[in-house]
Amino acid sequence: MADEKASNRQDAEELERYSVFSAASKWCIVAMVSYAAWFSTLTSFIYYPAIHELAQTFAVSIDKINLTITSYMAMATVAPTLLGDAADVLGRRPVYVLALSLYIGANIGIVLSNSYAALVGLRVLQALAISGKLSILSWGSSTHCS
């Protein structure tokens, strides 16, 4: 009986030591990753109400602004494959940090852009960075939570 209790206590201690992160650190990591994952959807849909203002600002037609949405969606379909392969080779953490940095840089570039060509290019970069992160996040979450 005493051996069984000692064994159960030892098993419980091993389960607690499964991760080097504290409970607060785990919650912080989950919050940051969830917040970053939310940006893919936000970046895609927050753009729609500003279509007319963007067309006026860049002096282009609404069809050309719609091309920026199409190019974003096209890159968003390919990006998970590209960043997923890069994560397999380089590791998830460096690719995740690089993608998040590219996303922040693309957002700053979009705010500061003065030309339509820059807007299209930065929207493609934005889609590459944020949509590709989802493949890294979903794989990492599924393997570490099970």
What proportion strand?
A: under 5%
How much helicity do the residues have?
over 70%
In one word, what is the shape? Answer: elongated
Distance between the termini: 31 Å
**Uncertain stretches:** 140-146
- Write down the Rg: 21 Å
Structural class: mainly alpha
SSE order, as H and E?
Answer: HHHHHH
Helix count from the secondary structure assignment: 6
Mean pLDDT: 82
Specify the biggest β-sheet. none
Count of DSSP strands: 0
Task: Describe the structure concisely.
This protein is mostly helical.
Task: Please tag this protein with its features.
146 residues; mainly alpha; 86% helix; disordered C terminus
Description of the molecule:
The structure is a single chain. By secondary structure, this protein is an all-alpha fold. The protein contains six helices and no strands. The protein has helices at residues 2-16, 23-45, 51-58, 62-90, 92-112, 116-145. The chain is elongated, with a radius of gyration of 21 Å.
Helix-strand layout with pairing:
Layout: H1 2-16, H2 23-45, H3 51-58, H4 62-90, H5 92-112, H6 116-145
Helix pairs in contact: 2-6, 3-4, 4-5, 4-6, 5-6
